[in-house]
Amino acid sequence: MRVLVLGGAGFIGLHLTRRLLADGHDVTVVDDFSRGRNDPDLAALEVPVISADLTDPEAYEKIPHDWDQVYLLAAVVGVRNVEKDPGKVVRVNTMVVLNTLDWIRPEEKLFFASTSEIYAGGVTAGIVQVPTPRDRAGDDRGCHGAEVRLRGQQAHR
Questions:
Q1: What is the C-alpha to C-alpha distance for residues 28 and 6, in angstroms, rounded to an integer?
Q2: How far apart (Å, rounded) are the C-alpha atoms in residues 88 and 153?
């Protein structure tokens, strides 16, 4: 199976890529390396890596199509980033989703995962159930609630 991992240099993306390779899949990673480093663990996997800023619609021109699965894990994450510039976090994360939705073809299956900020400390405080029940998925929890709602609504269009 041909698999594309958007945000594949992040913690989850790297581990997902390892698992997909172990399961015998052909994997390509896309990342902007905005965390400031090219991870040697990713390089050791010897997979094709495309460096791209997914907030830029033109960046998608260098990403091929015909994927069996596309995993969208690219996002600005971390409480420090949210506290420092919540507008940037919402803007960047939303643009990545919108651009991906414009780019992806109907026959390509997209898996979208939110970031951990959706829980905004609610798990350790005992007020957020994990996994989150579907009837609570649209609740506002921290600054991330509006972003998740917007991204989810756009994905259903």
A1: 9
A2: 20
